[in-house]
Amino acid sequence: MTTSSFLSVFAHNWTAEILPARPLILPPRHHTYPAQVEEVERGALEVMISPNNGDLFLATFALGFRDPIVPTGLWSAPNPEEICALSGGYAYIVSVHQPERFVMLPMRPVLSVHAAEQAGLLLFVGNRDILGWNAAGLAWEAKGVSSEGITVNSIGPDTLRGTGWEMRTDREFDFALDLATGTLQRKP
Question: Which of 34, 56, 90, 117 is the most buried (most CB within 10 A)?
Fold first, then answer.
């Protein structure tokens, strides 16, 4: 598993600690994500989460891929009541007050996560697509940004700028993505 990290850009109503291993004695509240999963046998990200109301629980996030290119760690989300966990490129958004409520993002693997604080978005970048997550949930999904591989060069208040690759021409191209709508503009 890759090195774990924590990125806190958005205000949040919880604290969390990545554990080196599952505790020998499980706390009274323990949630596994996704609920029915075989991947946990391959490894998992174990996180002790404490909402500000003090109702502590252990969260076990199934490992996606064992590859150093995919991220593992915790991110604050635009909704202060949610936590974002990545485990080997599998991304989970969990309600800290109702941990049975969660979303496992369909993008697999997520290759990078970026906070667009001014736009109120957490951005998930895969090989070809970019997904924007806001305080209400999925804001937009920009599909087919690149044939293979996306490099994020900068994130401004309204626009993400990056580089993609076009399979038909075997060339890289620049693009701009509107953070409000997820609309893509390719630059020649």
Answer: 90
